[in-house]
Design a protein that fits this description.
mainly alpha, 60% helix
C-alpha cells in the first residue's frame, strides 16, 4: 500500500510511528551489549523459571502496572470486584481519557 492509498488516520499513524528519513539502526554492538546486561540482570529470575513455571506477562498487566503501580500491586493477591473497585476503575479511566483526549480547536 503506497502513501497515496492511505486514509488520513492511517497516514497519521505512519507519520507518528514510521521511520524518519535518514534513520539508521543501532550498531549490532549496542544491541549485543544491552542483551548481555539484560541476561546478567535477569539471571536470578531466570533461575526460578522453567517450562512448568514460565513467566507470563500479559498486555493487560503491563498496561495496568504502567498506568498505576499501586493499583496493580494492591490487586495482585486480593482483587475482587466491589463497588469501590468499580468506582475507582471508572474514575481512573475517566481521568486517563481526560488527560489524553484530543480536543477540537
Amino acid at each position: 500500500m503506497s502513501n497515496q492509498e492511505l486514509n488520513p488516520m492511517q497516514q497519521g499513524v505512519v507519520e507518528v510511528l514510521g521511520k524518519p528519513a535518514g534513520w539508521v539502526p543501532l550498531p549490532l554492538t549496542v544491541v549485543t551489549a544491552v542483551r548481555e546486561q539484560l541476561d546478567t540482570a535477569l539471571a536470578p529470575l531466570a533461575a526460578k523459571l522453567s517450562p512448568d513455571q514460565p513467566l507470563f506477562i500479559s498486555k493487560g498487566s503491563l498496561n495496568t502496572v504502567h498506568g498505576c503501580e499501586a493499583h496493580f500491586m494492591a490487586s495482585l493477591n486480593s482483587f475482587e470486584w466491589t463497588i469501590n473497585n468499580l468506582r475507582g476503575t471508572v474514575m481512573h479511566k475517566a481521568v486517563e481519557l481526560s488527560i489524553n483526549w484530543l480536543r477540537a480547536s
